[in-house]
């Protein structure tokens, strides 16, 4: 492993560009980046891991959507500063719902879509994105308190207050379920999710920790 990693030339940010290609059709699926840890994880697990520059973190392709990339081969270019990975792609590679991120073609009329969507991106992307956005807002309140914020009020009151609210919201979910009112159930579960997120942030638990635990139980 160390010999392989030493032959790779990561840039001054510790990254290397990666092209993912469908192993059966040779269609180019996407372009992303890896750091040393992402490459190590990919080699160890057989599933492609990348490094997100915008989020500054390691991520596994398909970790929220289930659209994994299973490695068939990895090639290194002549200068050792780019990778070509042939994969078995589950569903599609692009978060827009297309099989490939390169689903648009430049024409005289402008950008023209050349592929139909293979899945509904709202079902597998927006849902987890909303959860992440809510969690991130709660984290931000700990860094940038906002006057009148209910979230900051909970943090100021401390763990016991947060736990009390989690218990209250769980009870309200039970009552809503007994009332057999779907709208009420959705509303109360959303309240419970929010208060659980506050508890998670207070105790240092990340969404990824929950995702990883749930993946173990599948």
Q: Would you report the number of β strands?
A: 8
Unreliably modeled segments = none
Radius of gyration: 22 Å
What's the overall average pLDDT, rounded? 90
What is the fold named in CATH at topology level of the largest domain? Ubiquitin-like (UB roll)
List the helices and strands and how they pair.
Blueprint lengths: L1 H5 L9 E7 L5 E7 L1 H10 L3 E4 L4 E4 L8 E8 L6 E7 L14 E4 L2 E4 L7 H23 L6 H8 L1 H21 L2 H22 L3 H10 L2
Parallel strand pairs: 1-6
Antiparallel strand pairs: 1-2, 3-4, 5-6, 7-8
Helix pairs in contact: 3-6, 5-6
Structure description:
This protein has two domains: 1-124, Phosphoribosyl-AMP cyclohydrolase (Ubiquitin-like (UB roll)), CATH 3.10.20.810; 127-216, Helix Hairpins, CATH 1.10.287.1080. The chain has 218 residues and is of the alpha+beta class. Helix 3 packs across helix 6 (182-203) and helix 5 packs antiparallel against helix 6 (182-203). The chain is 45% helix and 21% strand. It has a four-stranded mixed β-sheet with strand order 2-1-6-5, with helices on one face. The chain has a two-stranded antiparallel sheet with strand order 3-4. It has a two-stranded antiparallel sheet with strand order 7-8. The chain starts with a helix and ends with a helix.
């Amino acid at each position: 492993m160390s010999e392989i990693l030493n032959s790779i030339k990561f840039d001054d940010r510790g990254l290397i560009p990666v092209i993912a290609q469908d192993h059966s059709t040779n269609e180019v699926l996407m372009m992303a980046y890896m750091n040393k840890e992402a490459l190590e994880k990919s080699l160890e697990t057989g599933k492609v891991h990348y490094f997100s520059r915008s989020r500054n973190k390691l991520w596994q392709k398909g970790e929220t959507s289930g659209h994994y990339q299973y490695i068939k081969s990895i090639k290194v270019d002549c200068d050792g500063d780019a990778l070509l990975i042939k994969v078995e792609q589950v569903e599609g590679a692009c978060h827009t719902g297309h099989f490939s991120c390169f689903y648009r073609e430049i024409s005289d009329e402008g950008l023209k879509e050349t592929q139909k969507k293979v899945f509904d991106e709202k079902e597998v992307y927006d849902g987890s994105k909303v959860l992440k956005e809510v969690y991130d807002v709660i984290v931000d309140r700990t860094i940038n308190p906002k006057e009148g914020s209910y979230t900051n009020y909970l943090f100021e009151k401390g763990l016991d207050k947060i736990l009390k609210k989690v218990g209250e919201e769980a009870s309200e979910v039970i009552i809503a379920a007994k009332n057999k009112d779907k709208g009420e159930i959705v509303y109360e579960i959303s309240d419970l999710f929010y208060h659980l997120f506050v508890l998670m942030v207070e105790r240092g638990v990340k969404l990824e920790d929950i995702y990883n635990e749930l993946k173990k139980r599948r």
